[in-house]
Write a structure and sequence with these properties.
The complex is a heterodimer of chains A (422) and B (247). Chain A has 422 residues and is mainly alpha-helical. Helix content of chain A is 67%, strand content 5%. Chain A contains 16 helices and four strands. Chain A is elongated. Chain B is of the alpha/beta class and 247 residues long. Chain B has a six-stranded mixed β-sheet, with helices on both faces. In chain B, strands 2-1-4-5 form a four-stranded antiparallel β-sheet, covered by helices on one side. The chains are: A mainly alpha (422), B alpha/beta (247). At the A-B interface, helix 1 and helix 10 of A face helix 2 and helix 3 of B.
Chain lengths: 422, 247
């Protein structure tokens, strides 16, 4: 046990003597989480506060196009800029000046009015109401097409979201036009209310845990767990370099001639680097709780969750250290360990759901994500932060992280024993 | 003290043995010099004796302990001073010694007193708390020496302990080693400084191409070889003057 503590103390000294390394370990993750959260938060605000400028080409100039314009204005998503020429609008969007151009075709109002009126008259005449002569004469109308031009660089999610909003808006306008046509056929008094046009079906989001409206998770609650985990797993980079350094310095050879096991040497590193992970986590929490509100970002709420959060951070730290020990044991040079560790942690983050939620991944990647320790850690953090679970529900994820640590460390020990068998 | 029997080592992919069927016996209290040109097999032999390399065949024992069955006991009884400075540059001399001493099981006051005492002997007391990356080559060499013998090993292996140091540092190192030897430590030492070996060793062995060419007391070996006045003459007669470049 004394040798373990001595090893840990040596690691502590080595770490604290390397100020550049400490800065990378502690400041870079903070910079990362502040940057990412600021960007993501401003993305939300862009949609909610600062509207996206779009071009509207109104070739209809009727009440339907007027209605569309009012809906776009009232949506709080867009700032409508009028354009007269479709080709010019198309060109501006192609150049990326606008994300979207919206072209309302000629005679949309008259065409829609006529189609609805004729349909209504036909229907009423079947019920024996209205003038049969006019209902029987059908004009030739062709369907109208609202054209959308998207910036080629616009993301698919943005396109889908806009299409969905516009589709809903057009359906509503069509419904209102139908109601209006019925109203005109049934009464001459415009003020008379015949139809209740309010939506009959609405939806409410309910938290499956509390049965009440859910607390909407903000960018901080999403980013702190994800990027903290990313930073924790980045430990494998300095840890791998530390171990390769020991080989290059010859100190590892000296240790091999001493009555100390490789497990003890790794144990000392584990104690210190898990401590580093916990300090990183603490700093991240402090930044989320105290710095974020000062710079206009949502505050991190950790009330009543700290013990479980630290438990998850501890086991995530163990898993990251296990991986670092394995990389450091196998790698012979820094040129092997550093690029591998840096790339591998990014791959683990990608398949772990740090950037793109796992449910949004292709099925194969979803299966693969189950193998990423970062996915287990992220789920555990989300369980605590957003699902308010207890210790019992966390056990499977914690067990996976711990097993990962044990397996990677055992492989490192086995590899070392095999490589240096005497 | 050390019994080596038909010890061989052939590296993976190599065509020749680095050490071939070597028999050697080293008595307790000797200062034994392992001499040979570059690539002769000296470092390979020492690495096997220190449990760093697995022999291809043969066996050896140190103090009656077989290396296969008593690895940890053996490691406690031997000390090694490698050719490279096996030190942590960002730790002080005291911290380096404290760590390596701890790995031998030394602790507390005993560890501290031993370190203080040893640092004084090699003239590093004033630099005990300076980081070793600021040390000169001679200071690092002396510290490297201490790192392998804090636990008072029965057998001390030294791989070129005086390479690249000035005369002053070399004198301190050799005097200290003589003192240790007088206290009962058996020393096995490799060097290319043949004059140094001639004066320092009680017995030497010259090995070449992994095989033992001769062994005995330096003076006796020199007088037995016609045309040899010093160990260096004997060495060149036995190993030839051809360059020994190898990869």
């Amino acid at each position: 046990m004394f040798k373990l503590w001595a090893s840990a103390y040596k690691e502590f000294l080595l770490l604290t003597r390397d100020l550049g390394g400490l800065a990378v370990l502690f400041l870079m993750p903070l910079l990362l989480v502040i940057t990412i959260t600021t960007i993501q938060d401003s993305t939300f605000k862009t949609l909610e506060v600062s509207k996206i400028p779009i071009l509207l080409v109104d070739q209809d100039q009727g009440h339907v196009s007027q209605n569309i314009r009012e809906n776009l204005d009232n949506s709080n998503l867009f700032e409508v800029v009028m354009a007269t020429d479709e080709k010019e609008a198309q060109s501006l969007v192609q150049k990326g000046k606008y994300q979207l151009a919206f072209v309302i075709p000629e005679d949309l109002t008259s065409g829609l009015d006529q189609k609805v009126r004729e349909n209504v008259e036909t229907m009423l005449s079947r019920f024996g109401i209205g003038e049969e002569s006019t209902a029987s004469v059908k004009s030739k109308w062709s369907p109208k097409e609202v054209r959308l031009y998207f910036d080629p660089a616009a993301q698919q999610s943005f396109k889908t979201s806009v299409r969905s909003s516009i589709d809903q808006m057009i359906s509503e306008i069509e419904s209102k036009t139908i109601y209006k046509a019925f109203q005109e056929q049934l009464t001459d008094d415009e003020s008379e209310v015949i139809f209740d046009t309010e939506h009959f079906i609405s939806f409410t989001e309910i938290n499956p845990d509390t049965g009440q409206e859910p607390m909407v998770p903000n960018s901080t609650q999403h980013n702190i767990p994800a990027w903290t985990l990313f930073a924790i797993f980045f430990i494998m980079l300095p840890l791998g370099i530390n171990m390769v350094n020991e080989k290059n310095l010859g100190t590892m050879i000296r240790l091999r001639t001493q009555p100390v096991s490789y497990a003890t040497v790794l144990g000392g590193k584990t104690l210190v680097y898990v401590l580093v992970a916990l300090v990183q986590f603490t700093l991240m929490l402090l930044v989320g709780m105290y710095l974020f509100p000062l710079i206009g970002l949502p505050q991190l709420d950790v009330s009543g969750k700290l013990p479980l959060l630290f438990l998850v951070a501890f086991f995530a730290g163990l898993a990251a250290v296990g991986l670092g020990l394995l990389v450091g044991t196998i790698a012979k040079t820094q040129e092997q360990s550093a690029p591998f560790a840096a790339t591998f942690v990014v791959i683990l983050a990608a398949i772990g759901g740090v950037w793109v939620p796992v449910f949004a991944m292709p099925r194969f990647m979803q299966t693969l994500s189950n193998l990423s320790p970062m996915n287990w850690g992220l789920n555990a953090f989300y369980d605590v932060f957003l699902r308010n679970v207890g210790l019992r529900e966390l056990i499977p994820e914690i067990a996976l992280l711990f097993t990962f640590f044990i397996v990677t460390t055992l492989i490192a020990l086995f590899y070392n024993a095999k490589k240096n068998a005497v | 003290m050390i019994q080596i029997s038909r010890l061989s080592k052939k590296y993976k992919g190599a065509t020749d043995f680095s050490v071939h069927s070597l028999d050697l016996s080293i008595a307790e209290g000797e200062i034994f010099g392992l001499l040979g040109p570059n690539g002769a097999g000296k470092t390979t032999l020492i690495s096997m004796l220190c449990s760093l390399l697995k022999p291809s065949s043969g066996s050896f024992s140190i103090g009656g302990l077989n290396y296969r069955t008593n690895k940890n006991k053996l490691r406690q009884r031997i000390g090694i001073v490698p050719q490279e400075y096996a030190l942590y540059p960002s730790l002080s001399a005291f911290e380096n010694l404290s760590y390596f001493g701890s790995m031998y099981g030394l602790r507390g006051k005993l560890l501290k007193d031993t370190i203080d005492q040893q640092l004084e002997i090699v003239g590093l007391t004033d630099f005990a708390h300076k980081k070793t990356k600021t040390f000169s080559g001679g200071m690092k060499r002396r510290l490297n020496l201490l790192s392998g013998l804090l636990h008072r090993p029965e057998v001390l292996f030294l791989d070129e302990p005086t390479v690249g140091v000035d005369v002053q540092s070399r004198t301190v190192i050799l005097n200290y080693l003589r003192k240790l030897n007088a206290q009962g430590t058996t020393i096995i030492y490799t060097s290319h400084h043949l004059n140094e070996a001639e004066n320092f060793c009680t017995r030497v062995a010259i090995i070449d191409h992994g095989e033992l060419i001769c062994e005995g007391q330096p003076k006796k070996l020199i007088s037995a070889q016609e045309g040899a006045h010093h160990l260096e003459d004997l060495f060149l007669i036995l190993t030839g003057k051809a360059l020994r470049d190898y990869v």
